Amino acid sequence: MNPTKVVPVAVIALLCVFATGVALAADKVEAIGALTNGPDAVRAAVVEKGYRVALADGKVAAELWPAKDVAAGDTAAAGGDPGAALYPVLATGKFAGVIALPNGGQDFRGQKIAAGTYTLRYCLLPSDGNHMGVAPNRDFFLLVPVDSDTTPAAVITYPRLVKLIAKAAATNHPAAFQLVAPGTTSPSVATNEQKQTIFTFELSIGGKKTPVGMIVVGTAEQ
């Protein structure tokens, strides 16, 4: 009969510390201070305190300052089908906030986005042959370099918006972050089955706090 092996207490303690460290390594949302980059009008149009999405490896995925309030829009009046929108109270061209990407990033198509600060403009993806089937839904935030978007109160028409947002990815195709159904709590960060990192935050739309889900890390399903 083999004698019972005794595991040293020090080894057990080390294993417990290691296990605890692994359990604590997770994506998280942190509160941060005021936006300091960009035109005065843009900084005045966003909330005083923002959010930082920090990944499990310690890398900052994004920092976000939602707009103080977005006037409730009319997707149908803007040329879209409200039945196809996750957020039908928004309309194309509306300013929704500011996002900073201190380490750069990728949009839902996998396009590289340079490190920097960008405004977010809502867009319902056109239902034409160039866009059909490229994403599960048609709601997006399009990124505009903050210094190119100096009037947040303005609603930018789609043709002009496309010209502005192409600068974010330095290509002919705009940089876009896909919107999805929000999580059950706000603010929060979660990873879905496609290994996409979804950040849920509250956006005031027409004076009503509305949870919004946005993919900050991850590309479209292939």
Q: How would you describe the overall organization of this protein?
A:
This protein is an alpha+beta fold and 222 residues long. 15% of the residues lie in helices and 32% in strands. The protein contains 3 helices and 12 strands, in the order H-E-H-E-E-E-E-E-E-E-H-E-E-E-E. Strands 1-2-3-4-7-8-9-12-11-10 form a 10-stranded antiparallel beta sheet, covered by helices on one side. Strands 5-6 form a two-stranded antiparallel sheet. Strand 5 and strand 6 form a beta hairpin. The longest helix is centred in the N-terminal third of the chain and has 16 residues, at 9-24. The protein is globular, with a radius of gyration of 21 Å. The protein starts with 8 loop residues before the first helix and ends in a 5-residue tail after the last strand. Mean pLDDT is 81; it is low at 9-23 and 128-134.
Helix content: 10-25%
- Main structural class: alpha+beta
Mean pLDDT: 81
- Ranges with pLDDT <50 over ≥5 residues? 9-23, 128-134
Rg from Cα:
21 Å
Main features:
222 residues, two-stranded antiparallel ribbon, 3 helices, 12 strands
Structure described in brief:
With 222 residues, the protein is an alpha+beta fold. It is 15% helix and 32% strand.
List the helices and strands and how they pair.
Blueprint: H1 9-24, E1 28-32, H2 40-45, E2 50-54, E3 60-66, E4 95-101, E5 105-106, E6 112-113, E7 116-124, E8 139-145, H3 158-169, E9 176-180, E10 188-191, E11 197-205, E12 208-217
Antiparallel strand pairs: 1-2, 2-3, 3-4, 4-7, 5-6, 7-8, 8-9, 9-12, 10-11, 11-12
